[in-house]
Recover the amino acids of this structure.
């Protein structure tokens, strides 16, 4: 019911103490404020080099997709104005796991602010990074690129069939 909505992953990795600064950024005119690991005051904590590389690659792809200078478009911690939500909610794919990417990519390009935070070790739930999560992410990106012309299930099916065709003997 409020004028600012906030989302935070429930795994305990995000620093909830930056929420007031995020809310203030939206109140000051940002459409979306992202809790970011990749801006001043932020860090990826104890991510391994491999995990940082995967995260960096996913972020690069997301940045290219949304066409905005956003340092951490894969963040699970953000706040947005009700007006941004109302303007994009009909087009947002709720089946995805990276709703921030959807909110950034849909509709007019949003005004984005970022507040740095130190990423903590996971305190709840299993890690999100797996082969199926990477596949789901790539399907979400493909769906956004296709302008929702292709259903995400069709994209996943196409990726699966392509992989199977590669594995078949010539």
């Amino acid at each position: 019911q409020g004028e600012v909505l906030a989302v935070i992953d429930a795994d305990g990795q995000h620093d909830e103490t930056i929420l007031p600064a995020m809310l203030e950024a939206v109140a000051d005119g940002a459409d979306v404020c992202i809790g970011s690991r990749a801006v001043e005051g932020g860090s990826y904590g104890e991510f391994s080099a491999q995990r940082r590389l995967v995260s960096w690659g996913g972020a690069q792809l997301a940045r290219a997709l949304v066409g905005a200078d956003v340092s951490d478009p894969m963040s699970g911690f953000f706040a947005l104005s009700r007006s941004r939500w109302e303007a994009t909610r009909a087009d947002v794919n709720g089946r995805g796991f990276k709703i921030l990417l959807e909110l950034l990519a849909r509709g007019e390009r949003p005004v984005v602010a970022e507040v740095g935070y130190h990423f903590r070790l996971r305190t709840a739930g299993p890690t999100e990074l797996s082969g199926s999560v990477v596949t789901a992410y790539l399907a979400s990106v493909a769906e956004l690129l296709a302008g929702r012309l292709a259903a995400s299930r069709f994209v996943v099916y196409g990726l699966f069939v392509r992989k199977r065709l590669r594995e078949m003997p010539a």
Notes: Residues 49-66 form the longest helix (18 residues).
